[in-house]
Amino acid sequence: MTQPAGPSMNRVLIIGGTGSIGRLVAAHLLELGHLPRVLTRDPARARRSLPSGVEVAAGELADPTAVRAAVAGVDAVVMTHGAPYGSGDYAAVDYGAVPAVLDALDRHRVPVVLMSSIGVTATGGQSRELLEWKRRGERLLRVSGLPYTIVRPGWFGGGSGSHQRVDLRQGDLTEYGPVRREHVAETIVQALLTESATGRTVEVFSADGPALTDFPGAFLATEPDRPGDLDGARDRPGPRPETEPERVRADLRRHAHIPLTPDI
Ligand SMILES: NC(=O)c1ccc[n+]([C@@H]2O[C@H](COP(=O)([O-])OP(=O)(O)OC[C@H]3O[C@@H](n4cnc5c(N)ncnc54)[C@H](OP(=O)(O)O)[C@@H]3O)[C@@H](O)[C@H]2O)c1
Q: Of all atoms in ligand 1, which is nearest to the CA of residue 46?
């Protein structure tokens, strides 16, 4: 992959680093000379399956002590975690990772790249509950005051051999579109290491055409999120924060660095 030209990182915590995307992110970071650290509930399995050189931090997102230990000394955090589809653990895992990391960072300012999903702003469909929790995690991160990029992949594993190009879009308008897992991982790594990616929300797909080599230019061509806005730059407006579940409102009260509506 291309060597990004942005700020230097050293130790990068990957929440979900044993997953199908996170393991690719860990391998790319290692290749580029960074030190990936992976949070996992099963350290023995992680050590067997990840390249040597990847640090393994044992623990689970619901354990604040473990998450605090995992973030100690990191220069950046990547989140590619997810509860199994159908498990119903979306509030605890898909959303819960974001407040867990913000709590553990305790206002320590490091860049965060969050992998979410296309479709989070849609209003129907079978995956509604999962996507709503992912959107809530996005919104909390946006108003946290940390430098962030949110990457929303299309459907994993699609993309034919001719789909060599990473295609960044915005507005969450594409209902279906395939993306190769390596393209998701590359976009996440480039987002982490490219200054022009900060404060942006992008969807990522794989498309026909030559490989994208100018990631800084591609990020720069996207619209930045409006500072203080809960939603992504071109998103349909999301629910008013005061209509959200109490847990989400409490997290917003605790972590938002901007004034939200008084009755939240
Ligand atoms: N499938 C698609 O087409 C598609 C498209 C867009 C977005 N997505 C999203 O992508 C995510 C899945 O990505 P993936 O395939 O890379 O993941 P995956 O292979 O399903 O792995 C899930 C990861 O999350 C971690 N995790 C789950 N619960 C945890 C907990 N309680 N504490 C700590 N870590 C936990 C797991 O860590 P350990 O097991 O090691 O503890 C593992 O690393 C899902 O959220 C999904 O919604 C999927």
A: 40
